[in-house]
Amino acid sequence: MTTQPHLDIDAVRKVYGSVVALDEVTLGVEKGAYVVLLGPSGSGKTTLLSLIGGFIVPSSGRIGIAGRDVTDLSPAQRPTTTLFQDYALFPHMSVANNIGFGLKMRRVPAAERRKRIAAGLELVGLGDYGGRGIHELSGGQRQRVALARALVVEPEILLLDEPLGALDLNLRRQMQDELLALQRRTGRSFVHVTHDQEEAMALASLIVVMNNGRIEDMGTPKRIYERPATRFTATFMGESTQITGQVTSADGSSSTQVETAVGKLRLPGTLPAGNGVTIIIRPENLQTGGAGDVNLGTARIREATFQGAHYRVLASSETADQDFVLRLPPDRQVEQGMSLALSCRAEHLVAVDR
C-alpha cells in the first residue's frame, strides 16, 4: 500500500499567453522534508513555489497538501505560509505584534496568541526582544522575526522564496545553519527556492533541479552532485571536467568502453553502443601522478588560483583538445606551464547523454 505524499503536485502546467512557465511538473514530497527548488532565472522554480502557495492558479493539473486538494484555494485558505526575501515586516509594529499578526488575522484568542508569540520568540532565539521595534534589529534578527511569524500559525508547509539573498556571506552561512536546525526542531516541511548550489546542498534533504519549466533532476544532494542525471545538472551543480565521446562497446553488465579525445575510457555499467555521451569528472576526483586506475594523459597548467583549502587549477591536455579543472593541495608547488600526469578512479566517471 502506497501512502499519499504530504505535498502532491500532479502534472501542473502554467502558461502565460504563448510562454510555458511550467510544463507538466509532477512532484511528491514526504512530510518533514527540506526541499530546495534549484535552477537559473526563468527555470520555473519561483512559479512553482507561487503555485504551491496559491498566489497564482495553475493552467492545468492538481496540487494537494496533507491529503487535501488545495488547487483552487486562496493563499489564506491554504496550510502554508511564505517567507519572502524582503521579510515584509511591519515597521510600525513591535516584534511581538509582527509575530502575532497572522494569528490575529485568524482570530486566535488573545491568551493563546500571547502564548504562541512567546513560544515563537523562544524558538528563534529572541525571547527578550518582543517589545523592540523592527528598526532596532539586525538583518539576521529581522529574518528570525519573519520566520517566527511564519511558524506560529503552524503551517503544514513553510515556503521560502530566496530568503538568504539579501544577507552577506557570513550571515548567510549562519542563517543556513539556523534554518536547518529550525526545520529539524519543528519537523515541518520546508520548500525553499534558490539559485545558489552551495546553499541547496547545505540545506536540502531533496534537491529539485529545474530548467525551462521542467524538473531536470531530483534526489539527495550527494546523488545530484556525484551522479548527475543530465549534462545540465552536472554543469549547474558545480565545476567539472566534461569529456565527450562515443560508446564503442559494452562488456555484459559490468562496464562500457567510450572512445574519447584522451583515449579509450572504461566506465562501470552498460550503455548502448553508438551512443554519444559526455563523461563528467568533478575537480576533487582528478588525481595526479598516476594514482587512479583510469589514465587521462598529461596536461599543462594554464591557470592556478589559490583558494585557501586548495588550488583551483585549469589545465589543457598536451595531446588532445581537452581542458581539465582540478584541485591541488595548498602545500603543493603549482606553477603555470607545469605538466601533470592526470588520472581518476573508474567509479568517479559519470556518463550522461551528450
From TrEMBL:
GO function term, MF aspect, one: ATP binding
PROSITE patterns (UniProt xref): ABC_TRANSPORTER_1 (PS00211), ABC_TRANSPORTER_2 (PS50893)
SMART domains in the cross-refs: AAA (SM00382)
Keyword line: ATP-binding, Nucleotide-binding, Transport
InterPro entries in the record: AAA+_ATPase, ABC_SmlMolc_Importer, ABC_transporter-like_ATP-bd, ABC_transporter-like_CS, Mo/tungstate-bd_C_term_dom, P-loop_NTPase, Transp-assoc_OB_typ2
Gene3D superfamilies, A to Z: 2.40.50.100, P-loop containing nucleotide triphosphate hydrolases (3.40.50.300)
Presence of the UniProt keyword NADP in the record: no
Domain (ABC transporter): residue spans on this chain: 7-237
PANTHER family the UniProt entry points to: SPERMIDINE/PUTRESCINE IMPORT ATP-BINDING PROTEIN POTA (PTHR42781), SPERMIDINE_PUTRESCINE IMPORT ATP-BINDING PROTEIN POTA (PTHR42781:SF4)
Protein's UniProt name: ABC transporter ATP-binding protein
Protein species of origin: Dongia soli
